[in-house]
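> Could you send the NIPSNAP protein prediction when you get a chance?

Sure thing. Input:
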Amino acid sequence: MITCHLRYIIDPHKLAGFEAYGRLWIRLVEKFGGKHHGYFMPSEGTSNVALAMFSFPSLAAYEDYRKRSFDDAECQAAIAMNEKDRFIISYERSFFRPVFDDDQGIKRAP
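Output:
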């Protein structure tokens, strides 16, 4: 399993637009076989940082999602939202391997 962590710098005056964008991507990631863990909006403290996390069974499955998303009309419409309203200033994408206790039944590489 691979988990993608996104750290966004967003326009704090356009939170509603970014939240609507996030709600779309939760469904879209799951449409392509991923498990979305949610978007995390600013609350207390920093007002311009938001986070998102989602997982795929493997890096290859994530790469397949990325490839297929470029040709998907719903994904392109979500991207167009930000291109029009510019609520995302920048973002960083990192990948992690989650660790669970043995009761989760997840196979791990040695």
